[in-house]
Amino acid sequence: IWRCADRDKKVVVVAFLANAAKILNGETAHRVFGLPILQSIEDTGICTMKRMYRVVMKVADVLIIDEIATLPVKYFDLIEKEIQTLRETDEPFGGIKVICCGDFAQTAPPMSGMDRVAVLYSSVKRSKFWKQFTRVKLCQQQRLRDEKIRSFARELSSVKHDGFWKMKVPL
Known about the structure:
36% of the residues lie in helices and 9% in strands. By secondary structure, the chain is α/β, with parallel strands linked by helices. It has a 4-stranded parallel β-sheet. Strand 1, helix 2 and strand 2 (27-28) form a beta-alpha-beta unit. The model is unreliable at 160-171 (pLDDT under 50).
């Protein structure tokens, strides 16, 4: 984010979840793009962007979407279409550079009528645009500066990926 800002790039930061948006001093995707509230997998909708955000998105150079794994594919595709329409171009995301960040060990929150398979199929990876992204695996945690917290995070990570509890927790 700071590297883009240092290069005079206009950066918009959004996240599907409010806590993630707050940490990054961004906004929720719902607020910026006026996303509809989808109650079930059959629901469709249109974006209702407020004028202020329309102006911002018309001139933005970079869109950062955090917690991308929690964003259902329907919302991802609605965002893409909204930016394309707003910027009056057929380029994916209206020509804006899009940076998606997230942990795919997480999934989108389930909607009414969704079983486990439907939740997985609602993943943003199902979007026709996902193949156009270059994937980069980050290996060093940047948010955790304190060694005690980093140590705890490593333990949690080993638990998450091994699929069972290995930690000895003192009671």
